[in-house]
Amino acid sequence: MTDTEVPGPEPDWQPATQPPYYTGKNPAFQYSVWEHCVSLFQMIGVVTLPVHPVAQRLRLHVERSWDGLDGLDVVMFRLEGFSFAMSRHDGNPAGVSYVWFTQPHKEADKALDTLLEVVGIGDDVVAFRGDPRESPPAGFCDVAPTTSAWARLRCIIGMPRASK
Questions:
Q1: Which of 19, 42, 46, 90 is exposed most, by the fewest CB atoms within 10 A?
Q2: 114, 126 contact by CB (below 8 A)
Q3: Alpha helix (H) ranges present in 12-159?
Q4: Alpha carbon distance 156, 132 (integer Å)
C-alpha cells in the first residue's frame, strides 16, 4: 500500500464546527454526537445547578461535548426506571442545566422528583418543568414559535443569536 498525502484545508475554509453552518466556503460541517442524539430527547426541566455535583453524587462520568450553541458537559444515566441526560452549556449566563428523557416516557414530573430525591436536594432548584423549547416560560424568551429549537434555546438561556 502506498502512502497517499492528503492536502491541507483550503485557506478560505472556516472550521467545520463553526456555526452558522452552511454559510462559509468549507463544503463540510461537523456535528457532535450530542447534536445528533439530542433531537431525539425530551426535555423535562431546567434546574439551577451544575452537572458535576449531580454526577459526583451518583458516581457518574461527565462527558465533554459541543453543539451549535457552545461546549457543554453532559451525563446520561438510568435511575429507577427512567433514562436521563443532564446537560449544561459553558456560555449559559443563567447557569442552568437541562434535564432530558433519553427514551420516551409520560411521567416527567415523577422522573424529575425522583432525580431530586436521589440526589438529595429539594425542588427549589427547579427553574422550569417541561420543555421550554416548545413553550418558553413567560419572561424567559420572546421568540416566535416558528423559530428553530436552537434559536429558542439560545434565547431562553440568554445567549445572543448566531450571526448570519
A1: 90
A2: no
A3: 33-38, 51-58, 108-119, 149-156
A4: 7
